[in-house]
Amino acid sequence: MNYREIYKEKNFGKIIFDEPMKNHTSFGIGGPSDVFILPTNENELIDVLKFNYENKIPTTVIGRGTNLLVSDKGIRGAVICLADNYSNVEIDGTKVSVLSGTSLKDCALKAIENSLSGMEEVSGIPGNVGGAVAMNAGAYNREIKDFTISVRLINKKGEIIEYNNEQMNFSYRHSRVFDEDLIVSSAVFQLEKGDYNLIKERYLDFTNRRETKQPLDKKSCGSTFKRPTGSYASKLIDESGLRGYSYKDCQVSEKHCGFIINNGNATCEEMLYFIDKVKEIVKEKTGFDLEREVKLIGEF
What we know:
Elements: H1 3-6, E1 14-20, E2 32-38, H2 42-54, E3 59-62, E4 68-70, E5 75-81, E6 89-92, E7 95-99, H3 104-113, E8 116-117, H4 129-134, E9 138-139, E10 142-143, E11 148-154, E12 160-164, H5 176-179, E13 183-190, E14 192-193, H6 196-213, E15 219-223, H7 233-239, E16 246-247, E17 250-252, E18 259-262, H8 268-286, E19 295-297
């Protein structure tokens, strides 16, 4: 399909052809996307979704690529990216309205500037608001569902849907976004007014904990596995003797065993093999079945 002709003179924001996905994932892995689209507002996002749906063009929506492992063959059809191009935070009293492409950190810092508490624990989670809402991201016993009022979503036909907290069906690392293949456009959070200095102190404390315990300077997708019932993935991996375990450029972080890192030019095929090998060894050593948290996308 000649995507250059199809998207010629379309006003969907910035459009790039044959864009390497490794440039848009925190793992630094992934082949080319046929079309890479960066809408700048909701109207452009709706227009491109409608256009793709009507023309039967396969569509993948990503944020900052912090929880993705993209195929070496890349992604066929169109990739819509919602990141800095789709970012904004507005505060009204204790309510925070935020576009899905905004990073969680930027949203949390904006809240702190306005002496609003409630996002300090999740502020260090990599990625954007849209992905965090979709998977009900959490850290330090705090989850997105704990302060979300409502979410504005769009389906692949370009139709807008709004759900309140209860209707989102939040559960551990899950929401109905995945069940219904929806796209988070924006969300409204309910935070609490507090003392600026105390809120900032809490934020810095959580930031310090992350920086001292996690390999934030390495290419990774954060926690590679979901937390198994009755234990922790990092603990099980460590107990299985896998701290620092490696294969080619893939490695279990020596700093935090829950992180698998790309030390250079690991491919998707190599990383997937390595993740499965870690799962296999943990199963053999501990009896626990680890479930991958990182999402696979693209042509396999």
